[in-house]
Every structure is written in structure tokens, then in C-alpha cells.
Amino acid sequence: MTTKPKISKSRLALEYLESHSEATAKEVVAALSQYEVKLSDVNNAKQKLRATSPKRTSPGPKKRGPKPGKAAKATADIAAKTPKKRGRKPLKKTAVAKSPKAASKAAVAVSGGAYSTIEAGLRFIEATGSIESARELLTLIEQIKKA
Q1: CA-CA distance, 17 to 23, in Å (whole number)?
Q2: Which of these, 21, 25, 93, lies nearest to 10 by C-alpha position?
Q3: Cα gap 18→33, rounded to integer Å
Q4: Is residue 128 a contact partner of residue 137, using CB atoms and an 8 Å limit?
Q5: What is the DSSP code string of 20-79?
Q6: pLDDT tens, per residue, the chain with 147 residues
């Protein structure tokens, strides 16, 4: 008994498609009916051809993102489509009143030294008349700031 080596049906369809590039799948099935080639075998062969064709090979993975020149429009479209956030709004930051120590440190840094700050304090006391009146004036200023 002689046995023929069995040839793959997809391989037969592939070879036929390579030699007859414009043949449809039904034509290939009709031409290879003696080998019992089915439509699925032909479709598999066509898929292999498409995968190895030079048109389909790419240099690397596809680049994602908008095309050049369309970035500004794309971000504007996304911003327009984005729904408003729900929930509680964050509190607005308010200016925090500096403590007297922090204020004196800031004055020292601006004026250039502790000696000039002391001189400014002495001039303030002389302008108000006494230390007690300077203290009363400072407490009044603090109350006004708090209100």
C-alpha cells in the first residue's frame, strides 16, 4: 500500500490564491473541490496572506493621540463634553493674619535688623504718648481686623 503525504487544505488554498490573486473564495473552493477544501480553509489562507502582505506590516506599534494640529481642538472638545463636578466646593483660601511675633520678624527682615525695628517701636510709643495708649491702640487695631 502506498500512502500519499497528506497536504493541508489551507496550504492548498494559500498556494492557489498566490497563483490566482484575484480569485474569490467560492472560486477557490470550486477549483479545489477534489481535495475537499472548505470555505473556512480558504478564509484562513486569505487571512495569512493579509498578515504577511507588505501593506499590512508596520514599523511598530500605532501612535496614539491626536494628529498634529488637532491637539488644541481635541482638548477644547473634551473640556466641553466633561460634566461639571458635583459635591461640595473646596473652601477658598483666605489671608491668615500674622501673629505679632511673625509680623515683627517680617518687619526685621524688611527693615534690615532688630535695631531699626526697636527704633520704629519707640517712635510709635512717642507718637501715641505712652506705652499704655500704644497697647490700647494695638488692641483696637486687632479688634478691627477680626471684625
Answers
A1: 7
A2: 25
A3: 18
A4: yes
A5: STT--HHHHHHHTGGGT--HHHHHHHHHHHHHHSTTT--SSSPPPSPPTT-HHHHHHHHH
A6: 456 667 788 888 888 888 887 888 888 888 888 888 888 888 888 888 777 766 655 566 666 666 666 555 556 666 666 666 777 777 777 766 556 566 556 555 555 567 788 888 888 888 889 889 889 988 999 999 887
Which residue shows C-alpha cell 494628529? 67
Copy the grid coordinates of residue 94: 483666605
| Per-residue cell: 129 | 504718648
End-to-end Cα, the chain, rounded Å: 112
**Nearest CA among 40, 57, 49 for reference residue 14:** 49
What lies within 8 Å, CB to CB, of 47 at 6+ separation is none
- Count other Cβ atoms within 10 Å, centred on residue 125: 14
